[in-house]
Amino acid sequence: MSLFESKKLDFAPQKKFIKDLQVGEKTQGYYKVLNISKKNKRDGSAFLALELMDKTGRIPAKIWDNAEHYFSIIREGEIYRINGYVNEYMNRKEIKVDGLRAISSSDRDFDQNDFIEKPAFDTEKLFRDMIETIKSNLTNPYLLQLVDLFSTQYGETFKTHYGAQKIHHAYVGGLLQHTHSMVKLAIYCAHHYSLDKELLLMGVLFHDIGKMFEFDISPTVSTTMEGGLLGHIAVGNAKFLELAGKIPGFPGELSCKIQHLIISHHGEKEFGSPEVPKIPEAYVLHILDLLDSRLKIFEEVAANTETKGLFSDYIHVLDRRLYVPPKGENSES
Length: 333
Ligand SMILES: [Fe+2]
Ligand SMILES: [Fe+2]
Known about the structure:
Layout lengths: L2 H8 L15 E15 L5 E9 L2 E7 L3 H7 L5 E11 L2 E11 L20 H14 L4 H20 L13 H19 L4 H11 L3 H4 E2 L5 E2 L1 H20 L7 H13 L15 H25 L6 E5 L4 E4 L10
Parallel strand pairs: 3-5
Antiparallel strand pairs: 1-2, 1-4, 2-3, 4-5, 6-7, 8-9
């Protein structure tokens, strides 16, 4: 028997994509390791917790045996051929990994394109809409120039970056979607409360730009040195100052207010803001940021939870379980 034939026999009839995995079945496929961590079982021995992805989604996985060996060979951001069994744990599907190996040239059904994360929406269109919406609400020539500089310097990265490493908007285009959504809300709030709309819009546009430098999204999502040591608030503020510095005569008071919005957007010092919001536009920015990120968590939990009961598991960031009736329950109404 040739090597090729033996490999063929070694293969499952077809590779399985994450979205097609069913609880209770065996799986064999190619999955990218997004992250891996070593933990302890009750008896003190080690096991590994992983997060895997392909173009169809993500799934947690566990390696219960030979944890030390696998921990020494598995690299985050690498793709492996994995054999396993699909379990259900905490209302989510999970792979119990039985075997794993690196990709080889004889893996004929391996396709690198299976790991390109495509956004679920048209990022070009959304970015254009965001910039046009902002500019059509601006009259200050310095701010119009600032938005143009932002687009040319950061537009390409901004379109694809994640909104967060985990929890909410953690996907390609997430930062854009989050900011675009807040732009719409900001225009409404500025009008409703008679606020400085132009200032608020600048706060929205720049509040999270530091995330483009805080963490990388390729080959895997990981904190940069800049991100870990400075955080996205300080980095974002510095990037704003850099851009504003390129515009001769940019008004100092306006710059100070925009910086205030950026640095206070987490609302409280204990959540990483060096100052609390001290003007209405800063307070609204903080609330809109909270609203948009939290509503996204509600949406993501509902989409990713398969409950047998009525409630999700405890969601730390929201400090509660969410009401998530089994899917299809309301489908007849
Ligand atoms: Fe933030
Ligand atoms: Fe944000």
